[in-house]
Design goal:
The chain has 240 residues and is α+β, with helices and mostly antiparallel strands. It is built from 4 helices and 9 strands, in the order βααββββββαβαβ. Helix content is 32%, strand content 24%. It has a 5-stranded mixed β-barrel with strand order 2-4-5-8-6.
Length: 240
């Protein structure tokens, strides 16, 4: 008859410390992703329930995602092209054109995605109405880069359109010689004076994606515990 070998639970100190550190790290990352999911969900709900608002009131109260319907005119010549924007797998720019309302407000309008020539030297033509028009879109904050490396591109007052890596409202206002709101209007997809890619989303990564990432980190936390328990059982007399 074969004798039955019993095992005792004697996890090593080094292994326990290592597993505790890993589990703590994974759990903290899971908690952070859970917090981000809640923040993104709040923004998604704000975007979904936004209503039409007067532009000045929306600016004064910071009504992000408010639906804007206002008269005025575009600047037909001076455009800011935000580089490194992807649409359907293609790299291009977002076109930001100053808009001057009948109430004297100057604000940038994101008119959508436009391709750049292959050599990136000649700027594309940007057809823009010169007459009075009614603008419809959503109020949003200026795009914020994930990581800004180096100084903002220096804008020139006599060279338009201009290509930039990221937006700096103060520099743009100086180049335009006019006060500029620290907000942007995302042009509605139904408007005729825009370009591609105007299916605006409230966030880059959805709350659902963050919840998925949180689940993965918490699963790794649980895996650390299981591995710690499994590795802690030893055969008596085996101190390895």
């Amino acid at each position: 008859m074969t004798s039955k070998v019993s095992r005792s639970f004697r996890p090593s100190i080094a292994g326990s410390v290592a597993m505790l550190l890993l589990a703590s790290l994974f759990a903290s990352l899971g908690a952070w992703q859970t917090k981000r999911a809640a923040e993104k969900l709040e923004m998604e709900q704000l975007h979904r329930t936004a209503t039409i608002a007067d532009l000045q009131t929306a600016l004064d109260t910071g009504q992000r995602f408010a639906l804007i319907d206002i008269g005025g005119h575009y600047d037909p010549e001076r455009h800011i092209l935000l580089d490194n924007q992807i649409w359907k797998g293609r790299a291009g720019v977002h076109v930001f054109t100053p808009f001057y309302t009948n109430d004297g407000i100057a604000i940038l309008v994101n008119r959508g995605w436009l391709a750049l020539p292959a050599d990136r030297q000649a700027m594309p033509g940007i057809p823009t109405p010169q007459h009075q028009t009614v603008l419809r879109g959503r109020l949003n904050i200026l795009p914020v880069p994930g990581r800004a490396i180096g100084q903002a591109d220096k804008l020139e007052k006599d060279k338009w359109p201009q290509l930039v890596t990221y937006l700096n409202r103060a520099d743009i206002a100086e180049s335009l010689d006019t006060p500029l709101e620290d907000w942007v209007i995302q042009l509605s997809a139904t408007e005729a004076n825009g370009f591609n890619g105007r299916d605006w989303k409230p966030v880059y990564l959805s709350s659902e994606r963050h919840r998925g990432y949180a689940f993965q980190w918490f699963a790794l936390t649980a895996a650390c515990f299981v591995l710690w328990v499994f590795s802690g059982f030893r055969i008596p007399g085996n101190n390895k």
